[in-house]
Backbone:
């Protein structure tokens, strides 16, 4: 069996990911809220926020996939 080393949980990395995802949420919300087909401000905020949240989730997953692949490539060169 291979002995894989587990590194401890990195709180700073999580905070950086959360900040980047928050920035992405704000960007996505500013882009999509004007495209909600409603004249009710509450519905525009609701559906703009839900859409931006979904897109931010995809951003979170893509960011973590990028970090894993980058880490693998760096370790492969050693």
Residues:
């Amino acid at each position: 069996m291979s002995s894989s080393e587990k590194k401890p949980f990195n709180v700073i990395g999580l905070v950086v990911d959360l900040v980047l995802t928050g920035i992405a949420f704000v960007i996505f919300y500013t882009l999509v809220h004007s495209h909600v087909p409603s004249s009710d401000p509450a519905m525009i905020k609701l559906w703009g926020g839900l859409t931006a949240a979904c897109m931010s989730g995809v951003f979170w997953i893509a960011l973590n996939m990028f970090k894993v692949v980058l880490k693998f490539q760096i370790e492969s060169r050693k």
About this structure: Residues 41 and 63 are 32 Å apart (CA to CA).
